[in-house]
Amino acid sequence: MSALLLVLKFLLDASAVQAYFVLSQPILETTRLDPIVSPGQISGHVHVIAGGSNFNRSMTYESARQSQCTTAPMSLDLSNYWVPQLYYYSPSNQTYQAIPVYGMNAYYLPRAGSDGKVSAFPNGLQMVQGNPNRRTYDGTADSASITYVCLDYNNNHQGDPAWYERNNFFEHNCPDGLRAQVFFRSCWDGVHVTSPDHVSHMAWPSGGVNGGDCPASHPVRLVSLFYEFIFAVQNFPFNNGSDPTWVWANGDTTGYGFHGDFLSGWPELINGTNILQQAIDGCNANNGVGGELNNCPPFVPYLNSSLCLPENPLVNEDIGMGHYISRLPGDNPIWIGNGTKPTYANYTDANTTVGNPQSVIPAGYSFVGCVAEGTSGRALTGASYTGSNVTRGACVAFCESYGYPLAGMEYGSQCYCDYQMRNGASNTTLLDNDEKCDMKCANNAYESCGGPNALTLFNNPSLYPAAEVLPAGWVNSGCVTEAINGRALASYSISSSSMNHSMCIAACSSQGYKYAGVEYASQCFCGNILSTGSVNASSTDCNMACSGNSRQLCGGPDRLTLFTNTKAPSSTPVLPTGWTANGCWTEANNMRALANYSYASNNMTAQNCIAACSSRGYKYAGAEYASQCYCGNVFQSGSVQAATSDCNMACTGASAQFCGGPNRLTTWVNQTWTGDQ
């Protein structure tokens, strides 16, 4: 259960009203539309709407039933419930800010007449209750249908008239929110589902909001409908003195002008049964089931907890959600006192348009669905960010800027990118989007951005890199760590803001090295062996895009994307009879380790060096710095055996052989040498 629904359930449990059932639900949208009072037009003031996703400027019963989802916890109820948006008025600069809504509770109440009959709503019933121009309480049922409760769960205000339920705004703040309530007429004329004034096809029973028998002119007793919309007024200061604090979207500062609209979207028959009527008839014991809909058997197959988002355009205007605006949307100057409603001179909505409330997805990307996070790590390990500005469009644009084809939003405010799904994640096994990816985007309440351990995924097939063609003999050897006490590839390096795989391989190949490794997006390292401690790492560790090609990965922090030349140096060349490898040795102290004879050649090989030393009768042959050969019968003082990795330079005459390194000799020994040669 979401945090919002938990709040609504707490508010519901605290209410004394009993009901056949209660539909507690979040808000679908907030916009200046009203298909009952202003069909096909932009309405006079901003409304808060719950219910079916196909809410629009113009609506019919049929269009309501075409909703793809509903905010209601019962999927069959595609009705829409709406009231004005409540604003906070800041007297210091005469600005307004929309007060957030926790959600709403729609009560379906047991108010039968003396005949005991209560009917479900007829198809397409439309009702408006309350008068936006009302300025006082006159004792009528219509006036009594609008009430307010000031919520304070930590203090007892019993016996204090300032806290009694009332028909206008309170004169103090409400520590746990303001509950705005509207009770609808429940006697229907049996013929018309609406009327020119949106009211007269309905009437009050003899006892008004408390029930009684219906008049002969309106003989059909419908289930009684009662709204609660809970506004978080405690988040704003209370303006003591002559300045109003709360203002309805139509400018009303008294509270008397609150009103509600309802358009029924309940199905007439499901498999030959009217589910709403069945619930009214069968879920009324002990005053009904309240909010525990699972205790109403007709509803159980249709219980719903999925995220629902609007399908249609909203009015393109700033409604002050989360920030202050200089005036209320529409022709709605603040209305203080009991005089005629004020207006703006020459006001017009001619330039006000509607548009899609969801963010724009960059071209080429398409919605994949809801996918699970990886089983052993992040599914997407490329670029990422977390922030209050995350929307679907913003995340996809971020990933596109780095050249990534996959963009995933998670937990409302997190954005991840990559070229592939990793760590056991799959983009072909989809989760239920409405249940698992049901968190609204941090910067757009009209679209979802994943959920806990689930990503809303987009994909652009055109951004996947073509199969990489490496130079002949070179292969991708995966991701490796740096060495324990130095570089994994320590022989040669370059850095470039244009780094890519080909550049690094070319640099290492030109120096005759077996390995090429790209690290930290822009660094290239070369060598003929991997230094001690460098081991294979997870492919997800090499997740940084190359600085010169965002479609390639160039290692990561202390991680190298490694390439190997399969035709590169080998430490075991074919040697003349009697000669064997003798390891890597350092130079001596202040002189050559093998000091009897030497020469240099651009065609140096192990065989050539051995031949030169053997022909002169020497026991040892040593190749250094790729092109130098040294001979002798003993190693001079200070020359000691070195790590094999120190002798990592390819021979100038055979790139498949090692010929020492800086101050290091690859050495060979004649095992048949007797000293008489």
From TrEMBL:
Signal among keywords: yes
Keyword annotations of the record: Signal
Coiled-coil zones: none
SMART domains referenced in this protein's UniProt entry, alphabetically: WSC
InterPro entries associated with the record: DUF1996, WSC_carb-bd
WSC domain location: 364-461, 473-566, 578-671
Keyword Signal attached: yes
Signal sequence, start to end: 1-19
Name listed for the protein in its UniProt record: WSC domain-containing protein
Organism: Kockovaella imperatae
Organism taxonomic ancestry: Eukaryota, Fungi, Dikarya, Basidiomycota, Agaricomycotina
